[in-house]
Structure formats: structure tokens, C-alpha cells
Amino acid sequence: MLHAVALRLTRNAADAQDLTQNTLVKALRFHDKFKEGTYIKAWLLTILRNTFINEYRRKVRHPNFVELTGAEAAEDKSPDPKIQYEPNQGDTSDLMELLEDEVREAVESLPDDFRLAVIKADL
């Protein structure tokens, strides 16, 4: 019953198992707080609900941080090898067609040497 409620709250089987286990650990730790004659199911569900709320609030306040050590692989930004493109020497008109009007006009307004450098570096 506890696991079913935990599953409904977390919507994740692994998180539901963790929540159920944490609930039972707390119930065993504080078994002396349980009052004889009260409904144990309600007591356990209250512990489950409060544990879920506390964990949710903790996660919202302290989101997961990932520390990058520099050993991670860099994002691959190389051109797609499936697409073959051989630019004509000195002819950049096909590349210029891919640009928006504002950008194309700005690149075309550059002197020849600068325009060629921008095209080779950025396009």
C-alpha cells in the first residue's frame, strides 16, 4: 500500500522505492511516537506524505549541480560527414544565398579581403 501511494506521488518506480524505504526507516526510528489505539495506516501515510514533501522542497531549493573536471569530451561541432560540399574556388554566391538578407548585405558591404576572411572563418 505504501509503495502504491509512493508510486502515485513520484511517478517513478525507483523514486517510489526510495520513498517507501525512507518512510519505513523513519517509522522504525520513531516507533515510540506511535500512539497505541491509533490507525497505523494513517500514521504511515502521514510519514510518507511528509517525507515526499520534504524531499521535493529540498530538491527545489538545491538543484543538482554537475562539476566539470575538464576530462569530459567536448561537443562535436564538426561538419556532418554525410553532407558533401566542395565550394568553388573564389565563388561564394551559393553560401551567400543561405544567409538572411541583413547578414548577406553586411558581408557584401565588407572590402574583398575582409569578406573572404569572414566567409572562410564563419561560413
Highlighted features:
123 residues, 6 helices, single chain, mainly alpha
Summarize the structure in words.
This protein is mostly helical and 123 residues long. It is 58% helix and 0% strand. The protein contains 6 helices and no strands. It has helices spanning 2-10, 13-29, 40-61, 93-96, 101-108, 112-122. Helix 1 (2-10) packs across helix 2 and helix 1 (2-10) runs parallel beside helix 3 (40-61).
Largest sheet: none
- Uncertain runs are none
Based on CA atoms alone, the radius of gyration comes out at 31 Å
- Number of extended strands: 0
Mean pLDDT over the full residue set: 83
Distance between the termini: 61 Å
Topology order in helix (H) and strand (E) letters: HHHHHH
How many distinct helices?
Answer: 6
Share of helix, binned: 55-70%
Specify the structural class. Answer: mainly alpha
> How would you describe the oligomerization state of the chains in this entry?
single chain
Strand content: under 5%
| Overall spatial form | rod-shaped
What's the short story on this structure?
With 123 residues, this protein is an all-alpha fold. 58% of the residues lie in helices and 0% in strands.
Write the layout of secondary structure elements.
Elements: H1 2-10, H2 13-29, H3 40-61, H4 93-96, H5 101-108, H6 112-122
Helix pairs in contact: 1-2, 1-3, 2-3
